[in-house]
Amino acid sequence: MSLLALLLVSASCFLHVGWNLFGKKVSPTPAFFTLAYCIGTLVLLPLIAPTLGLLASMPPAFWLLLGLSATCQACYSWSLAGAYASGDISHTYPLARALPVLMVALASFWLYPAAQLSVAEMLGMLVVVAGALLLPMQHLRDFRLNLYLNRASGWAVAAALATTGYSLLDASAIHLMRASVTAGSDLSLALLYIWLQGAGSLLVLLPLQLCRRELRASLFSVGRANWKMAGLSGCMMLLTYALVLWAMQYADNVSYVVAFRQLSIPLGVFVGIWLLGERSTRMKWGGTLLILMGLVLLALNRGI
User: Which of 18, 49, 55, 273 has its CA 20 to 30 A from that of 289?
Assistant: First the structure.
């Protein structure tokens, strides 16, 4: 993975932690993320309007990939809201971010036999995941299933599965998009794609949000009280992943991009402890250190 890709992913990590903090602190509900997509796509529309004409050249396969990715993104947002409503961000955020490292690696191993991961790369990813699993423990002897078999962890795993889905789909879709057009910069195409994905996610989330009375009430309540924060979060969400999609164009394997995105894990832990007052433990800090060690191992192995 190139230095430019690494810088792009690093910048996206700070934005990612920011909007997750807003989602946890302001309103950990699907309504918040639905409104975020709504306002975010409206705000960014002027930026991508000049490139909308490029969509006429997109093949049917692109639209299929986009639709599936948008559905995964909607599932991710809904699951993330459930995780934050049920548990601490310093526990659920690392799980939701670390598990896709292993999931995408395994999926890539199956889907792309010619681009298999080395032993060192796989070890680095496993260290990242192991560190995330240490976070909810008080002591090593505390390892037991009920630390993870709960609503918060279940939602976090669901979010991780959705992340794996849209990561693999987007890697194919963005390359297909680039191959189908002759105009537009890498960044403009990334912005166009993420705007389309955000709009597609909104089309999935909004009907679900309106189909039940309590969900409609939640949407209107969040809209009245927190529309500004939701709008800011929406813009950050779209820009965050636009940077990741841009970075994917400079990586030969999507697993590397997904792995380096886990720089946001220690940032998320710090945010939970320092800004939200969540419990600080030695195991949590140890798990964070393991995650950083796994990232360093990955970086050294790729010669960055």
Answer: 18
Query: How large a percentage of the chain has pLDDT more than 70?
Result: 90
Q: Which of 55, 4, 76, 41 is nearest to 195 (CA)?
A: 41
Chain segment 180-218, per-residue pLDDT in tens: 887 777 778 888 998 999 999 999 999 999 998 999 999
Query: Which residue in 12, 10, 50 sits closest to 189, CA to CA?
Result: 50
Indicate if the pLDDT at residue 28 is higher than 90. Answer: yes
Q: Report the alpha-carbon distance of residue 214 to residue 209 in Å, rounded.
A: 9
Separation between Cα atoms, residue 169 and residue 129, nearest integer Å: 22
Return the pLDDT at 304. 41
Q: What is the mean pLDDT of the chain?
A: 85
The Cβ-side half-sphere exposure at 72, using a 13 Å CA radius, reads: 17
Q: Which of 105, 132, 88, 109 is nearest to 262 (CA)?
A: 132
Query: If you search the block for the tokens 């997509």, which residue do you land on?
Result: 37
Q: Which amino acid is at 70?
A: A
Does an H or E element contain 184, and which?
A: none
* Pair of tokens at residue 145: 């299933």
Q: What is d(CA 164, CA 196) in angstroms, rounded to the nearest whole number?
A: 19
What is the Cα–Cα distance from 284 to 139, expressed in whole angstroms? 10
